[in-house]
From TrEMBL, chain A:
E.C. code: 2.1.3.2
Record organism: Aeromicrobium terrae
Xref: PROSITE patterns: CARBAMOYLTRANSFERASE
Subunit: Heterododecamer (2C3:3R2) of six catalytic PyrB chains organized as two trimers (C3), and six regulatory PyrI chains organized as three dimers (R2).
Any one GO MF annotation of this record: amino acid binding
Name by which UniProt lists this protein: Aspartate carbamoyltransferase
Record NCBIfam families: asp_carb_tr (TIGR00670), PRK00856.1 (NF002032)
Chain residues that bind L-aspartate: 84, 181, 235
SUPFAM superfamilies in the cross-refs: Aspartate/ornithine carbamoyltransferase
UniProtKB/TrEMBL annotation, chain B:
Pathway: Pyrimidine metabolism; UMP biosynthesis via de novo pathway; (S)-dihydroorotate from bicarbonate: step 3/3
Organism phylogeny: Bacteria, Bacillati, Actinomycetota, Actinomycetes, Propionibacteriales
GO cellular component, one term: cytoplasm
UniProt protein name: Dihydroorotase
Domain Dihydroorotase catalytic: 48-235
Molecular function terms, GO-annotated: allantoinase activity; dihydroorotase activity; zinc ion binding
Cofactor comment text: Binds 2 Zn(2+) ions per subunit.
Residues at the catalytic site: 304
Name of the gene this protein is made from: pyrC
Keywords: Hydrolase, Metal-binding, Pyrimidine biosynthesis, Zinc
Amino acid sequence: MTFTHLLSAADLSREDAVRILDTAEELLSVASRPIKKLPTLRGRTVVNLFFEDSTRTRISFEAAAKRLSADVINFSAKGSSVSKGESLKDTALTLQAMGADAVVVRHHHSGAPHRLAHAQWTQGAVVNAGDGTHEHPTQALLDAFTMRRHLVGGGAGPLGGKGQSLEGKNITIVGDVLHSRVARSNALLLDTLGAHVTLVAPPTLLPVGVDHWPVQTSYDLDAAMEKSDAVMMLRVQRERMNAAFFPSAREYSRRYGLDVARMNRLPDHAIVMHPGPMNRGMEINADVADSDRSVIVEQVTNGVAVRMAVLYLLLGGAAEEENE
Amino acid sequence: MSTTVIRNARLLDEDVVDLLIEDGAFTAVGTGLDAPADAHEVDATDLVALPGLVDLHTHVREPGREDAETVLTGSRAAARGGFTCVHAMANTDPVADTAGVVEQVWRLGLEGGFCDVQPVGAVTVGLGGERLAELGAMADSAAGVRVFSDDGKCVSDAVLMRRALEYVKAFDGVIAQHAQEPRLTEGAQMNEGPLSGELGLTGWPAVAEEAIVARDVLLAEHVGSRLHVCHVSTRGSVEIIRWAKSRGINVTAEVTPHHLLLSDEVVRSYDPIYKVNPPLRSADDVQAVREALADGTIDVVATDHAPHPMEDKECEWSAAAFGMLGLETALSVVQQTMVDPGLLTWADVAGRMSYRPAEIGRVAGHGRPIAVGEPANLALVDPSAERVVEATDTASLSRNTPYAGLTVPGRVVATFLRGRATVLDGELQEVYA
Ligand SMILES: [Zn+2]
């Protein structure tokens, strides 16, 4: 691998990304075995360092590490008076003392994993599990993995798209791009994998400078539907209307929500995605979320396999070298 | 008092001369000067003599945060930077909003003896932005305050700003505005632009500065008052100030060394050593403030020296404090960005870092030319020196320099405050040694 940490989707070359997806494809089969464990990371320590609540993401990483036989330490720093960041440094020094081989960090401040990786407070590999409004690269990887299974190699599912990218696929990402780490990571990774990304949002929820991103932007969701191979709905907090990002939840939902009528304008093969947790009735209608096109539950399953692949490639490779 | 003779100093860009200093003043300037036998001799061969530098914008943390900086440590850092007078901003704890606090700061400076510390008075009580502080009492105090600022916060209420501008006319004061529209910068972390979007940090848009600068120059024109704009950081602000000056509006402006040297690209590291308010801007803005300093649209360089303890910088970007050190590196940064590229002469530097700031701040005895009868406030600089900035090599109590590891030109060899050497051979000279 050409990366030692996974802080941003931009850390990955196309070769790296495809290798992660291919590895995840192989590891996904482990999940269907009666004994779901591989000995690959035996003796290795993975710390889940969560400064922000996210049971879903933590459980996903925990399952991934355990299925590779790593020792897992869950460290929840939330609530332990972490308004100032001294604790990030102190926590990192503690983890270093414990011999963490990988640190999976979730943090409410953008750039915290970057600080952890580059301030020389710890030597373990740092995996960004979501930082502020910056990035969430493993979410982007699991999204790409899910897309490849459905959209490449005739949508053959298992191993269908092995070795392949998402070249030429049209992906539409809709919603609060400004505050979304998922959107940032997806825009970068999908571009790396050759897909065409269109971000759809009210102008208030697109960041200044989005014209420098490798994407197209649109304010019109209807116009984007017919050419989409996948449409990804981002979570939108209702409270955003209090800061005048949009007038009301109802208006947002009418203009940018995915309902059945809009969904029916998608091509037949197109899929509907959501990184969760969903705001049903806001950005996505319940009938859409539960429809045949929805791959939302599958995204969760794929998350474990993709995170296994990331840990395996970050740590497993190093172990093999040591044994040689 | 003792006599000092300085041999072979280059007077700005002009002749090489000797300078005779007696009783705190220059008593002779010329070649081959006779000096009394007991005169202290300083060899200034290859050094440039600048009038003692004057900073309009220094944060000493006393009273309140003496762990980060005191008046004394700030003065010592100032002397090492070639300064003989600094203006201490009002955002201390308690705030410098009464005659009592400003006199305390002023006296501490005098007692320290390294640098005159001219307090800036708060515009509003407690920097609260609601009621005017007793500006007249601070003006009439022993400290003789003439510069008033809520720096750190913007006087955003238009009526209050208008009244402050009007009121200080009674004693020839000036309002130094920290131009930051508060609602447009809620939670702001860095310059708003392509990089803030990419890094997921809340943006501090240029328009939040420019909107206040535009409003304030119009207010200053309307009431015929004197306005000073702190730390101009954007091309738009420069253009507004240029327009205001062309209309004859009585506005002056400053730029910091860090806005002359650094652009927002360094924020990619997420290292809060680069976190400052106003934020580091685009490369185009850096270009604009350099041009404006060269053509006089921006009158002065002011450091915005802002010490912080390490724990407020060794953390996540968004949790970190705003501000960076500046006193000991200001002249080197100005040499690198302005003098070496030919944008300013040393005479221009004297104007922008000594004469003009003293004039804006109305401080007597500083910002005077090096001439017979003038107070002997002086910095001797070696422009051919190169040095690597080290965070620990500082007289400040804090270490938050953004230049650590950078090689910069120029070194302050000596500083004289009213004839007393505060720095010789680059070393601080203790007062009673
Ligand atoms: Zn300020």
